[in-house]
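Contributing new records

If you add data, match the layout below exactly. Sequence lines come first and carry their own label; structure lines follow with theirs. Keep one chain per record. Anything else will be rejected by the validation script.
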Amino acid sequence: MLAPTDVDSAPRARAGNRGNRDARTGRFLPGNRAWEARSTSAGPAPRFADAESLWRACVRYFDWVDQHPLYEMHLVTWKGRATQVPVPRMRPMTKTALCAFLGIERSTWRAWKRNRPDLLPTIEHAEDIVWIWQFNGAAAGLLDEWLVIRQLGIGRKVER
């Protein structure tokens, strides 16, 4: 909706295009080239413009997981006194948690994997690290084996 001609409703636009606007009304003059001042792409800038920025964000997630373990409470009894002691446990990495940490949807991650060849090596490397973390945690008994087997897609369904 246009503002009345006696009210200046676009002071920021006028400041950058002084020669393209009528000083009295603030409207664009015929033959102006204001469209050239517009950015070259529509919509917001991509969250990760290149593979390096995506990799740095993934490394921040890997560091966060390592520095923030889950805690399991163990009951310790000594000389008749019972005390609960927090014992750090390995926090599992998942692609879903990685996406949440990055502030993107899983569908965005999959779309980048399909449509952004510039990010593909970084995405595959990050997925490999998550897979290895889960596999090693399950193999060492630090993570629930059945949960990790289902998450990794290895093994077959077993009737219980």
